[in-house]
Amino acid sequence: MSIRTESQDGRTLLHIEGEMTIYTAADLKAQLMPHLGQDGELEIVLAEVCEIDSAGLQLLILAKREATRNETALRLSRHSRAVLEVFDLCNLAAFFGDPLVIAHSPNG
Amino acid sequence: MSTSLDQALQTYIAEARELLEEMEAALLRLESAPDDAETLGAIFRAAHTIKGSAGLFGLDPIVSFTHIVEDILQRLRDGNLAVTAQLIALLLECGDHMQQLIEVVAVQGGQLDATAHAHECGLRERLYSYQQAVTEEACMPVVHAPEPTIEVCDEQHVSSELWHISLRFGPQVLRNGMDPLSFLRYLNSIGSIQRISTLSDSMPPMDSMDAESCYLGFEIELQSDAERATIAETFDFVRDDCQIHILPPHGKIAEYIEMLQQLPEDFSRLGELLVSSGALTPQELERGLAAQENPSGNQPQQLLGEILLEQRVVQPAVVQAALDKQSQLQEQRSREQRYVRVQADKLDELINLVGELVIAGAGASLLAQNCQDEALQEATSVVSGLVEEIRDGALRLRMVPIGDTFNRFQRVVRDVSQELGKDIELHISGAETELDKSVVEKIGDPLMHLLRNAMDHGIELPEVRQAAGKPSKGNLHLNAYHDSGSIVIEISDDGRGLDRQRILQKARERDLISSTATPTDAELYNLIFEAGFSTASAITSLSGRGVGMDVVKRNITALRGSVELDSQPGLGTRVRIRLPLTLAIIDGFLVGISQASYVVPLNMVQECVELSADDRRATRERGYLNLRGEVLPLIFLREHFNIDGSPGRRENVVVVRCAEHKAGLVVDELLGEFQTVIKPLGKLFSTLRGISGSTILGNGAVALILDVPALVLQITRQASHAAQQPAALSICAR
Questions:
Q1: What CDD domains has UniProt attached to this entry (chain A) (predicted)?
Q2: By the CB < 8 Å criterion, does A86 face chain B?
Q3: Which residues pair with A16 in a beta bridge?
Q4: Å from B214 to nearest chain A CA?
Q5: What is the ipTM of this complex?
Q6: Helices marked H in chain A — which ranges?
Q7: A91 touches chain B (CB under 8 A)
Q8: Which residues of A touch B188 (CB under 8 A)?
């Protein structure tokens, strides 16, 4: 798991790569925290998340809540299939409020 | 797969096989008693448990197929579907398919091949047609209406038709290796999550939030036909540190309110959430809240159970589910208390050790006797008494009733009789007779063969039977009982019996007997156990190819048993199999001839007689003894085994009985009882007649175990027709 930071038009892009699970959650939270308090738009790119469990999901919820509290904008983007599956399972798409690309699932 | 999970899977496989057997037996019972609710319940529980546990191991093909079967069973149980012969036949096929699924998916970890898959699709379609039929029926106006119940429910029960499940996971859940999301996925496998709200209210501010603790909660509307027990079982692993509320469809408003109060989140927020998710209507919430503020009774702290009792209008399904779960738990617990699962090889190891202990104990008593120390002798005799008890106890551990094996044949008889267009009923008696597990395992195939033979050749077609003045329904009897240290299994039918002429003709054709010989009935009938001997005029898929009966005999002989056949033309045939109870240790009677020792199985010994000098001379010539007016053929073991040396001063006769025959074994010395651990003889000695094994004596010497049945048969045959030509003798069954 690693986070790659990138700046683009005043936005901060955080690319999370690898798994967002109980094994990486503590590490991930430590890396994520500094970005959450900052002003300016934050975008978390989830394209490279290969696996996500409850611990990973909690961190995304935490991030969203902090952002709402600080009245900063947080966007989650390019959700990987693993992330979409979990959002769908927990019915959290509305909570995050990001546009989702409905992946073509093999079962139709 | 980790070892513990692998072990659990093995347990599952063993249990599933047992359950399938129970299910099959119950289905067959259901055929004769279609209204027996208990039998239906047993079938349902078997399917239900197989499905539930398969879910835990992620064996999806099993879950998905069993689910449909379970659904049909549920409808049967609810009385929405009637028990018919076709349905039972279908369910039996489903049972077979589940068996196959377990073998392929659980045991081999593979996938069904194309044919099996096509078969499953066929089954699914047929099951589906039953599901359809019910739905259509339910749509018709004449329904035993659940409508009024719902109306009553309206007062205190919510209108939602979905299960409501409220989950608050404890903080330790993630650290314990559990992922709440996997529970949601499992719920989706036993039903379908219609709506779900994810709650994270208990999550503290960012700084104090621990990424490895769980703060999640869910409010779920689940559509499922599963019982409460099944849903509750999902959470077995996390029950201790989680708050779990499961409310059934049309649950009581009071229960919802109570749940809302117990949950950590804000009462009204949750209430709104439930309303928005459709679990409660606004009216229901209001009414519940009003009742809450203004309780009808004066006791504010009423126990939940009392409330439930007071409000008599409870949904039958809920009560049923609760009762089922309770009885199931009790059943399971009592079964768990009564049985311990032990691996068979551990038992074998134990029995081996006991065998060694018996030999070592014999050695110790021998030494004690030589020491002539009374106290020591006393002590060793106590020890050997105990060793004997341990031996018996250890052997009993391996004893299983033969009934399970017998019951399997109900199905076979049913299927085969349908295939042959015959009406045959199987009667079982003596199912509780016990014998060694290893014997039970090996006797199944020979029995199956004999049964098929009896059904195919023995029992006639209904028309033929009626023409012969017999009832059109044929009867097969399976019986087992203990008889002088062996178990006897009888298979008898009331069919046409054996055709003496045809067997004689065939035997002469095949040069098994000379054309002039006139063998006795018994000898002739036993010829059908010879290799390649078949008199069937038509070869059917079941039997008549001339293989089989010889294999049956070989299998039984390998178990140190014997088989004999008895037939009455027009009345039926009876096959009698005689097997030793155990293959490991027996009580023996030790006899001596010169320096050599021999063991006679004690349970065959009837009495011992001294052979006086006068008798000795007379019997040597005649070959038999006058035992209280009875002719007792004698076997002079010294001559029989060609032992050197002259007979001792006195000789003794050990009278042995085997089946219906008696004989006397002439020996020098009687050495008394001896616990005999049977050591099989090597391959080299496999053709040796009259010896069935060897054992080790206390002093380390080897004693041979006499094969009494072989000896007795040999001598009675010699005595009864000494003039017969040897060709007939050598082929006769032992």
A1: STAS_anti-anti-sigma_factors (cd07043)
A2: yes
A3: A3
A4: 7
A5: 0.88
A6: 25-36, 54-70, 81-90, 93-96
A7: yes
A8: 89
